[in-house]
Amino acid sequence: MWSLSVFCILAIGYVSCEQRCQGSPRMYNGKRCASTTRYRNYHKGACKCGPASGDSQFSWNHDHFVTAPNQMFFDEEYSGWCGQRCGKCVKLTTTGGYIPGQGGPTPAGQSHVFMVTNFCPNVYPNQNWCNQGTGPYGNGHNDYGYVAHFDLENGANQISRIGWNNSEVTWEIVSCHGANTPEDEMYQHCQCAHHGKRSLNETTNGSENGF
Fold it and tell me: Is the pTM value of this prediction over 0.85?
């Protein structure tokens, strides 16, 4: 009987056995894939989700499920503040895969909803992850082949507690509902809710999933 590793090499060629997503762009179960990492941040971030005075975070922007996606997911016109997807929410679902040498296995099918409150700039040490050249519905990808990347806030060990270790995921834009997910009314307290491309009055949070 062939081992799984041999089968992976024969079946999907250049894709590592540890990575479940295939093709260009990488897809899994009909959905676009992304890479993830974890970080800790103590600033309000590029969507300005903190008190107007100073640079500290709202508590939910530190201990809830929030994310800093790559620049071209955050804003396709390269804005560094109040990008077009500030306050949007994405459902990330583990594939069971990971990038060899960059993470570890997580059971497939675990889903959590994250709100965009910051972004991952294409500068050191992020270039391998956040250097996509097109928006998330294009074919530009990072060094690992993913059209999107999500750096997940782990300030209160919320990502460590769910056992995600730079997991490979699928993603889709959804409404902001879920356990430990910030709600839309929380985002309305962010400065970018009033002045950003996604205005305070926008209510179509889950309407962006066409390829």
Answer: yes
pLDDT, tens digit, for every residue of 13-38?
A: 345 679 999 998 999 999 999 999 99
Helices (H), 115-198: 127-130, 158-161, 184-187, 191-195
Q: What is the pLDDT of residue 206?
A: 52
Q: Which residues of 89-107 are buried (b: 16+ CB within 10 A; e: fewer)?
A: bbbbbbbbbbbeebbeebe
The candidate with the shortest Cα–Cα distance to 91, out of 176, 3, 180, is 176
| Contact between 94 and 169 (Cβ < 8 Å) | yes
- The answer on pLDDT for 104 being more than 50 is yes
Q: Where are the alpha helices (DSSP H) in the chain?
A: 4-12, 60-63, 71-74, 127-130, 158-161, 184-187, 191-195
Q: Looking only at Cα atoms, what is the longest distance across the chain?
A: 65
Distance CA 27, CA 23 (A): 6
Measured on CA atoms in the order 164, 44, 192, 68, is the torsion positive or negative? negative
Token digits of residue 121: 């700039």
